[in-house]
């Protein structure tokens, strides 16, 4: 089968979904472009800052994308490319994009508050505490998993490390130019993007060779600082500029695959069970993770994006469109695995999913007429972009972890709250358990746990949307309910498997984490369903 045909067909399906299903969702959530958003109503110059749609799309997309939509589909390809592709398309359109869009809409209708605060308002105090604990634990796992990914990439590709450090300085200068000097956005963007690609070349010329642990310490220091500085100074401009790198990668990979046009050689379906992942249900779904649906996105949508959305009409391109772009990136990553034979895929996978992705995309881009860059340089560029976005997800996750912990302190005794609710204290408390997991050396066990916790978080976020929607419209929406129930069943099954497997392996740290997430999820679901039942009884009466 032609990979070009598969890629074009997937692109067309996602585009049609964006136009028609996205507009249908906008009607369901009564989008009104004249209604003031929290970014304008509560503008404080730090967290609530109105952003132009392209800038916010860049921030949102860079924050949600990371490395997960690349790693997940390639890892799950051991089951065969057809089940992975089907879940990416169906999950992306009807599960993930709906989840992201709904989370953003509910947040902006509640003063830009996080999902935890929305749950507190519509489900109650107990539900809020459970949700915040679950979210905080999930973000700690995200911080650990993505830190290891970034550090490993920097060790393997030192050029990516030096370029990434230069990007941070460029982002600060860009943020100052746009927000303090009030320079023209278009002109600043052209100059900023040109400098960005110059830094790619400089990084390739001056690689920074450091050990794994050294990179982990540097990453910890960076995300600690990024968590507390104003959003306009680092987070927003860095995500915006970095998004152009990923757009270039996606477009270059898309055009490259069209010209290269390799045949799909991996088997459409390989097996129902693999030695590394286990059974196709539920492990296919939690392994693909962010390419189809991700609870982490709801935390971003309600934690930072809703505080920067300038117009309600921007929610469709930013949230629904942003998720579909990520799904397309996942499909592109899957194709880089599907063009390999089963033996070649197994051999290259030993170097990691990013190596598979970099190899396939480099071959594709090298086939574009007029591209004369060496294949090795292109591989380094692809690795650099992936690591840059994993780092972007990291600083966003740390900031959101800080927000979540600060919300939790509202339930602490007053003396403890005073000691822990400050920005610096909350950041340190969030990073300490994340750092412990980083240096534990258990990445292979952390990734499946990340996928399960992440998608369980999506189910819980959809549950909060369901309660909000029912209270506002007195209806139980199937377009929210079907993905919510499906993801709850999938992730509960996955967490039960992980509790059992970690018990057999005597890994009591991960056993405790998986068990905690499982218990929190069940209690929260019971709490929310009780609220829905009481409201339905009131409605009937």
Description:
This protein is mostly helical and 541 residues long. It has one domain: Amino acid/polyamine transporter I, CATH 1.20.1740. It contains 22 helices and 2 strands. Strands 1-2 form a two-stranded antiparallel sheet. A hairpin with a 3-residue loop joins strand 1 and strand 2. The longest helix is centred in the C-terminal third of the chain and has 34 residues. The termini are far apart. 55% of the residues are buried. The mean pLDDT is 86.
- CA-CA gap between termini: 59 Å
> What's the level 1 CATH class?
Mainly Alpha
User: Tell me, what's the shape?
Assistant: globular
By helix and strand content, what is the structural category? mainly alpha
Number of domains: 1
Count the strands? 2
Query: How are the strands of the biggest sheet laid out side by side?
Result: 1-2
- CATH architecture type: Up-down Bundle
CATH superfamily: Amino acid/polyamine transporter I
The mean pLDDT is 86
Q: How helical, in percent, are the residues?
A: over 70%
Count of alpha/pi helices: 22
Write the layout of secondary structure elements.
Elements: H1 3-28, H2 38-41, H3 53-65, H4 68-76, H5 81-108, H6 115-122, H7 125-156, H8 158-179, H9 185-205, H10 212-226, H11 235-260, E1 273-274, E2 278-279, H12 280-288, H13 295-303, H14 315-338, H15 342-349, H16 353-366, H17 375-408, H18 414-420, H19 423-438, H20 443-473, H21 478-504, H22 508-540
Helix pairs in contact: 1-5, 1-11, 1-14, 3-11, 3-14, 3-17, 4-12, 4-14, 4-16, 5-13, 5-14, 5-20, 5-21, 6-7, 6-20, 7-8, 7-10, 7-17, 7-19, 7-20, 7-22, 8-9, 8-11, 8-17, 9-11, 10-17, 11-16, 11-17, 12-20, 12-21, 13-17, 13-20, 14-16, 16-17, 17-19, 20-21, 20-22, 21-22
């Amino acid at each position: 089968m032609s990979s070009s045909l598969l890629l074009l067909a997937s692109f067309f399906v996602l585009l049609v979904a964006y136009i028609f299903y996205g507009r249908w969702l906008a009607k369901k959530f009564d989008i009104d472009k004249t209604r003031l958003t929290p970014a304008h109503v509560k503008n404080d110059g730090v967290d609530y800052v109105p952003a132009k749609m392209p800038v916010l799309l860049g921030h949102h997309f860079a924050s949600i994308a990371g490395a997960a939509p690349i790693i997940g589909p390639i890892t799950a390809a051991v089951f065969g490319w057809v089940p992975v592709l089907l879940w990416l398309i169906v999950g992306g359109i009807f599960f993930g994009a709906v989840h992201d869009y709904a989370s953003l809409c509910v947040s902006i209708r509640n003063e830009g508050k996080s999902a935890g605060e929305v749950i507190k308002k519509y489900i109650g105090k107990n539900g809020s505490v459970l949700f915040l604990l679950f979210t905080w634990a999930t973000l700690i796992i995200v911080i650990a998993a993505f830190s290891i990914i970034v550090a490993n990439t920097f060790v393997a590709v030192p050029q990516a490390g030096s370029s990434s450090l230069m990007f941070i300085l460029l982002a600060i200068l860009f943020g100052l130019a746009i927000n303090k000097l009030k320079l023209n956005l278009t002109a600043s963007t052209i100059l900023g993007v040109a400098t960005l690609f110059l830094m790619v070349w400089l990084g390739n010329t001056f690689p920074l060779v450091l050990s794994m642990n050294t990179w982990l310490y540097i990453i910890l220091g960076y995300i600690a600082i990024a968590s507390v500085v104003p959003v306009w100074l680092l987070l927003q401009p860095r995500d915006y500029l970095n998004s152009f790198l990923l757009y270039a990668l996606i477009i270059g990979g898309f055009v490259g695959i069209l010209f290269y046009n390799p045949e799909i050689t991996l088997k459409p379906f390989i097996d129902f069970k693999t030695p590394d992942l286990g059974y196709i249900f539920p492990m296919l779904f939690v392994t693909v993770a962010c390419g189809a649906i991700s609870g982490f996105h709801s935390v971003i949508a309600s934690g930072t994006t809703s505080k920067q959305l300038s117009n309600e009409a921007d929610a469709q391109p930013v949230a629904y469109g942003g998720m579909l772009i990520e799904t397309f990136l996942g499909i592109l990553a899957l194709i880089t695995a599907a063009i390999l034979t089963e033996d070649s895929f197994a051999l290259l996978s030993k170097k990691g999913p990013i190596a598979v992705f970099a190899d396939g995309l480099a071959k594709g881009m090298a086939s574009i007429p007029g591209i004369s860059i060496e294949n090795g340089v292109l591989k380094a560029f692809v690795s650099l972009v992936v690591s840059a976005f994993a780092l972007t997800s990291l600083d966003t996750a740390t900031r959101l972890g800080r927000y979540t912990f600060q919300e939790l302190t509202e339930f602490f005794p007053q003396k403890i709250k005073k000691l822990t609710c400050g920005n610096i204290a909350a950041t340190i408390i969030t990073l300490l358990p994340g750092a412990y997991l980083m240096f534990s050396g258990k990445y292979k066990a952390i990734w499946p746990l990340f996928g399960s916790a992440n998608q369980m978080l999506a189910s819980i976020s959809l549950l909060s949307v369901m309660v909000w929607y029912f209270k506002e419209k007195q209806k139980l929406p199937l377009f929210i309910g079907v993905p919510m129930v499906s993801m709850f069943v999938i992730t509960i099954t996955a967490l039960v498997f992980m509790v059992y497997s970690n018990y057999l392996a005597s890994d009591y740290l991960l056993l405790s984490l998986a068990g905690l997430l499982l218990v929190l999820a069940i209690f929260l679901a019971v709490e929310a369903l009780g609220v829905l039942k009481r409201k339905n009884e009131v409605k009937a009466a």
